[in-house]
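pls design
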């Protein structure tokens, strides 16, 4: 089980984001105090989560400058995914870079780069993918210009996490606590059901694993924690836990965090045309990703 590119499922992500309805600075609590838990405030917490997720959804559509890191670790029995996405979004309109690197094999990586206003985006192929093109880079038409940030490879995985949290809060009453801190930041915790985790494709498991996740394991959940600053910007998000059932064990640890202020030095130069294989149309792009999928499924 290897780390999969975060580029192929952009169209599906639109539907996920449209379903996100997430908080708010303060959550109605006095700074430095915890919002009480219990059945009597379950509806209150759910509403605050809904407000928060809506604001996060809105902010992700604003193309704010940001630099982030997302670590993904997943283990199903002895099969593992362990990867890191380092992402930069800079300027208006934004230039975007996401570097998807395996932590198990230094030769397995894909760097996706879209210069601001460019009609094409570029993909740098690590050695594992060298057979896909005769050059280090490929280019393809940029088709996400009218979509929000969740179509971008550097953000759409975290949008899927937010979708899973929202499903769990609205459908399964997964909200657990909201804690306002003296600096105006807020921390929210929730239980994310296995069903929501899988339905939102937070991690792309191959069919050979999905077929082994039975009814017992699907009753389990993971713990999610979101931290927002005083302006309501998401600064840290984790979803983690271990689920057992049906004779199998799944361990999950996703961690997203902001990573300082990006500058132009964080972005690569536009590749030399001599080092770029052009994928001119949808047919060529689809063939490219089909061949990539064969490599990833080995």
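designed seq:
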């Amino acid at each position: 089980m290897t780390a999969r590119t975060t580029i192929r499922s952009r169209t599906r992500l639109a539907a996920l984001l449209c379903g996100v309805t997430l908080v708010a600075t303060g959550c109605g609590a006095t700074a430095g105090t915890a919002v009480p838990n219990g059945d009597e405030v379950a509806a209150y917490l759910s509403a605050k989560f809904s407000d928060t997720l809506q604001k996060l959804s809105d902010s992700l559509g604003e193309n704010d400058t940001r630099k982030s890191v997302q670590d993904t670790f997943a283990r199903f029995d002895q099969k593992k995914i362990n990867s890191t996405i380092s992402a930069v979004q800079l300027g208006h309109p934004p230039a975007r870079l996401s570097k998807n690197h395996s932590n198990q094999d230094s030769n397995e990586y894909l760097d996706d780069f879209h210069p601001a206003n460019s009609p094409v985006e570029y993909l740098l192929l690590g050695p594992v993918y060298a057979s896909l093109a005769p050059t280090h880079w490929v280019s393809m038409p940029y088709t996400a210009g009218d979509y929000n940030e969740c179509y971008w490879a550097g953000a759409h995985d975290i949008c899927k996490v937010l979708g899973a949290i929202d499903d769990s809060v609205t459908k399964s009453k997964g909200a657990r606590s909201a804690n306002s801190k003296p600096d105006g930041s807020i921390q929210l915790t929730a239980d994310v059901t296995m069903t929501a985790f899988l339905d939102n494709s937070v991690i792309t498991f191959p069919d050979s694993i999905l077929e082994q996740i039975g009814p017992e394991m699907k009753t389990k959940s993971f713990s999610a924690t979101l931290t927002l600053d005083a302006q309501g910007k998401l600064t840290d998000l984790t979803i983690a836990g271990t689920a057992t059932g049906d004779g199998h064990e799944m361990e999950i640890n996703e961690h997203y965090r902001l990573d300082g202020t990006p500058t132009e030095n964080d972005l690569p130069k536009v590749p030399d045309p001599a080092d770029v294989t052009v994928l001119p149309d949808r047919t060529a792009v689809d063939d490219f990703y089909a061949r990539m999928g064969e490599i990833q499924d080995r």
